[in-house]
């Protein structure tokens, strides 16, 4: 593999308000995705709403675009976030590196830390949440539930701050130990702590009232930090990236 030159990173066709958070010497990178931006285009015409304003090859899970010299440039996605969720997305600038890290992800723990603004307040300041989830894909959309589930999901929750205003809100630190689709959103909803702005698993009436009062409909879930270790070309490497928590997460407490 050839290590990407610095010009590769400075000329990425970044989407609206998307930022390059970090990249290492091998070509591992992290992007900061705002809420409402797609991890990748889902259909023709979605490119302007995606983290890169470029074509996306679904089979290879890679973005492609023409560089200044006419050569094809590529960036492989290592993970995704729901469009409504903001924060860290991982990528790799080489296909072999992408494949190697994905294989290691399956065997090693990737540490992810989220912040979530929820309705209500947990009974305990810190808890380990363990559930069995049912994950289905219907009409191209993923739906997750805790009814009749057999897929184990585990997350560590700690309370960062609970407000005293109405509606009562809490800011939570969530660290998933497993990586199930919509895991955090479903686990919060199960404990009567729906994430503010969750249009799938949340409290729709409270969402409407909050949106009218606060003037925003965003999902208040943010991937704040991701870190992991990986091996490449016979050497161990560490990678970490952090996306600052949007100020509105504390504004309404």
Brief overview:
This protein has 253 residues and is an alpha+beta fold. The protein has helices at residues 6-10, 95-105, 183-190, 204-214, 248-251, and strands at 19-23, 28-33, 55-57, 62-66, 72-77, 86-92, 111-119, 126-138, 141-145, 151-162, 169-176, 221-232, 235-242.
Protein described:
The chain is of the alpha+beta class and about 250 residues long. It has two domains: about 100 residues, Alpha-Beta Plaits (2-Layer Sandwich); about 110 residues, Pseudouridine synthase (2-Layer Sandwich), CATH 3.30.2350.10. A hairpin with a 2-residue loop joins strand 12 and strand 13.
Mean pLDDT: 93
Tally of DSSP helical segments: 5
CATH fold title of the largest domain? Pseudouridine synthase
Please report the first level of CATH classification, the CATH class of the largest domain: Alpha Beta
H/E element sequence: HEEEEEEHEEEEEHHEEH
Query: By helix and strand content, what is the structural category?
Result: alpha+beta
Helix coverage percent: 10-25%
